[in-house]
Amino acid sequence: MRRKRYLAPWARKAEAGEWSSKASEPKPGEAEARHALEGKPPIYHCISRVVDRRFILGEAEREQFVTCLRAYEAFCQVRVLTFCVMSNHFHVLVEVPARPAEDPSDQELLKHLTVLYSGKQMAEIRWQLEHFRGQGDHAAAEELRQRFLARMWDLSAFVKVLKQRFAQWYNRRVGRDGCLWSDRFKSVLVEDGHAARVMAAYIDLNPVRAGMVEAPEDYRWSGYGEASAGKKKAREGLRRVMLEKHRMTAPTARAAEEVADWRKVAAGYREILAGDLEKSEGRREGVKKKNHGRAARATHGGARMTEAQLLRCRVRYFTDGLVLGSRDFVDRAFELTREWFGPRRTSGARKLARAETELRTMRALKVRPYET
User: Fold this and answer.
1) What's the mean pLDDT in 282-301?
2) Same domain, 277 and 141
């Protein structure tokens, strides 16, 4: 299956009003998978690179990207759990809630549009909508509304507009034309709970793996860096990431109280980031060489890695695995998209090579699953 993007099948098919693209009745295993997954807000790890992998995202560019990220997070009604903006690419872990059963009223929509629009633009939108309503042309009014609503509660729309708006800003800034991003973004569907925590830590550790900082909290253009600096939105995202861990040991109400305390959330998340590895003793170049050495040993020497060691490598499963989660989660997602795969494939979950982890992916990567 050659796909760069795997959208949550239970959300996609429910929105379209169908569960199987080839039959009206669910196939064996599909009904159980539907029941287990229906209603889950899907979480995605998204990544996109600058054309030719050029290192053009300096401090000003990264600041602007984060500004755009937060603006379109609010407009598109998604939730950024964490992110990291590097010199030539970005990572975003984003949760996409289902579209409400009932669309907002005209006034509610107009109020929401002020997140992005103001002044003349807002006045023009308001005038058009009121004009159509006044003329009794409700079809035209609804068409106008849907132009905006179609950009909400949708992963592709969110990343598309984020990349477009940033590219427009950057091209104006430096006086260039043409595409800024190398291609459409890649995404991996991530199960909430343990898989989401591991993926979040993997994203926040990007600058550490690259040797740019010694500690992830020192990198300001990341979710954990922002949260450590006291940014409210960043802390809300990591609270959501850590909520499932607290639910394992406490009732839902108690877990919600615990994640309201940022100190507890930060302490738990730091344990995931630190893992069982020794703290760095100093120089960034030494950190980078040590991390590359781990990846090289895992790739060529056949050594088995713990999850903590995985987080210090570049793991292609986390960017190209299509789905990441428990065996049950991956198998259930597979059941809902079985027709996408060849007839000889009977299960979805695939192990991560040479890794001591319960995590599974949809794709069994055979070429360089861990990169140095």
Assistant:
1) 49
2) no
